[in-house]
């Protein structure tokens, strides 16, 4: 009987030692075990902040422009600019240029209020306004108006400048515009298509080329 008790006593002590050892090993490696069991976090892209693709823009040929002619506002320029504004801009920016046009009601951010000089992406300076019309601001919903002749864009800017006290037009701004967009030399602007459309065209042309080669074999 004593031998049995002695045997079971040793057996229980051995089991207890194994349990303690396993427990110590588990607690010592708990961090590694957790890292292996917990799936890494998945970060979803915020589609609301993804930049839009390039818009379709028809190419154009622009004759030479003397930018110095547009350094000073004239009644004729303003009237011409107002006509361009009513045709091209009023639907989004509103008839009075307050950013309350019907077409821009659901846009976020809202269309520019031209009566305020705060919060401009490119700035309210003469050359920056031209830059906005020429290049657009894709992530702000502002389309490029490079299809408009430069003289119409200049006239439009002069009209918009009547809606608030805009910064003075500086000679170096005109020089920069001429240098950047080759206005005095004239400019040929190629067509622009979205990147997605360009990729589809390349894939289609590649498939057509493969079919021709296969047929020739």
Plain-language structure description:
It is built from 8 helices and 2 strands. It has 217 residues and is an all-alpha fold. The protein has a domain at 61-184: Orthogonal Bundle (Cytochrome Bc1 Complex, Chain D, domain 2). Strands 1-2 form a two-stranded antiparallel ribbon. Helix 3 crosses helix 6 and helix 5 runs parallel beside helix 7 (171-181). The longest helix is centred in the first third of the chain and has 27 residues, at 2-28.
Itemize the secondary structure elements and their pairings.
Layout: H1 2-28, H2 30-37, E1 60-62, H3 75-88, H4 90-93, H5 126-135, H6 150-160, H7 171-181, E2 187-189, H8 195-216
Antiparallel strand pairs: 1-2
Helix pairs in contact: 3-6, 5-7
